Amino acid sequence: MALFKRGSKSEAEAYKSLGYQYLVISQFLKAITAFEKAIDLNPKYYVAAEKNLTLAENRYINSARVSP
Q: What is the model's pTM?
């Protein structure tokens, strides 16, 4: 992520996209971290990233319940 200016829209968008990719492959903790970073870098991403963050958190909780 060093290619982006710290806190820029591009960096926040990159973390939001990274979080989504982690979500797709069921890497929920990494997805949560990436979405939180996107929100931290650029609060304008709060709505989109928050929706995905909530989804990742719920899937993580559900996967923990299923695991032995």
A: 0.71
